[in-house]
Write a structure and sequence with these properties.
It contains six helices and nine strands, in the order αβααβααβαββββββ. The protein is of the alpha/beta class. It comes from Nephila pilipes (Giant wood spider).
């Protein structure tokens, strides 16, 4: 997955799924007249390899997701099951659990290949739990995988990898090329000569990610030592798959700076 989607898009998708869970709870309460506020999450780590568990991007995503979940959705979950967890799973957990709050940690139950089906049935009715997870529920044709209402994860074909996409700006004759070495930075300033002008940018990297931010200083403060005002907060962006593009309206005359 990490080879076929930008990190920020993966995060957005995760948020969308969490919000979808909330909508399902609200729909369930409306339909059955209940007041359920908690859901149960089941994560299957059956195909987790050492390479995946120790991949830098995977680790960063795991940390980012855990922080986001803890800050915004901690009370939305009753229990979190990690099933088919191998030794490699413990590598990720050893890092993520170091900053998770105790109440959330207590909700996480980790299992190897055995024992989890019985535990799931303590929280989920057998007629609701899919058969492949130890319950009785199947598709109308008897398929225990319940493909009619569950979308199972699959290996993404290499033809969808972002690395196969063409470098659009690299081949553009109008694009300016600069070299930014590790632990260094490059700044570009632009004068905003008219109020309500638009500042537009597009950039890409040959490899790795890069930090990017936009600052502004009013023309009346141009010669002063006063700091620039941050317009676009500093963020680390992966742009070696496709260009990062943006547009900003400059309401005042002054100086804009990319950094």
């Amino acid at each position: 997955t990490i080879n076929s989607v930008k990190i920020e898009d993966y995060v957005k998708f995760s948020i969308q799924m969490l919000e979808y869970d909330t909508d399902l709870l609200n729909q369930h309460n409306k339909e059955f007249g209940t007041k359920a506020i908690h859901g149960i999450h089941i994560y299957n780590f059956e195909n987790l390899t050492f390479a995946k568990a120790t991949h830098k991007t995977v680790m960063e995503l795991a940390l980012h997701f855990c922080r986001m979940f803890q800050d915004n959705y901690p009370e939305r979950v009753k229990r979190i099951y990690h099933i088919n967890a191998s030794f490699y799973h413990s590598l990720i957990m050893s890092i993520t659990k170091s900053f998770l709050a105790s109440p959330l940690l207590k909700k996480i139950l980790c299992f190897g290949t055995d024992g989890w089906k019985q535990e799931l049935l303590k929280d989920i009715d057998a007629d609701v739990l899919p058969a492949f997870l130890g319950g009785n529920r199947t598709d109308p044709d008897g398929n225990p995988m319940c493909n009619t209402f569950i979308i199972h994860g699959q290996i993404v074909p290499e033809r969808y990898y972002l690395c196969n996409s063409e470098k659009r700006l690299f081949n553009s004759p109008d694009a300016k090329k600069i070299t930014v070495s590790r632990f260094s930075k490059e700044e570009k300033t632009f004068k905003v000569k008219e109020a309500d002008s638009y500042l537009e940018w597009a950039f890409e990297t040959m490899n790795k990610d890069i930090e990017f931010s936009v600052y502004f200083k009013d023309k009346s403060l141009e010669n002063s030592k006063k700091e620039y005002v941050e317009l676009v907060p500093k963020q680390r962006i992966n742009t070696f798959y496709e260009p990062e593009e943006g547009l900003l309206k400059c309401e005042k005359v002054g100086i804009c700076k990319y950094a």
